[in-house]
Amino acid sequence: MDVVAKYYGIDPSEVLAFGDGNNDIDMFRWAGASVAMSHATVEAYAAATFVAPPGDPATCLARAVANL
């Protein structure tokens, strides 16, 4: 995360991260804002800034973006 952002001159505060699992928690903490998918783990919900609206996991990202 940090290496790519630094390469492109992007500050972490300008990053919006999306995820659904415990492996995404560090990314959520690093990014300026984060969205846990509606089917995420409880730990991911707790670490995220926002939670996507419930529904079909296949369209979760679209619902999350539409509701930001």
What does this protein structure show overall?
The chain has 68 residues and is an alpha/beta fold. Helices cover 38% and strands 15% of the residues. It is built from 4 helices and 3 strands. Helix 3 links the parallel strand 2 and strand 3. The longest helix has 7 residues. The model has no long low-confidence stretch (mean pLDDT 93).
Number of helices: 4
Radius of gyration equals 12 Å
Helix fraction bin: 25-40%
Unreliable spans: none
Strand content: 5-15%
Per-chain topology:
Elements (H helix, E strand, L loop, with lengths): L1 H7 L7 E4 L5 H6 L2 E4 L5 H6 L2 E2 L8 H7 L2
Summary of the model, kept short:
This protein is an alpha/beta fold and 68 residues long. It has four helices and three strands, in the order H-E-H-E-H-E-H.
Task: Identify the notable features of this structure and list them briefly.
alpha/beta
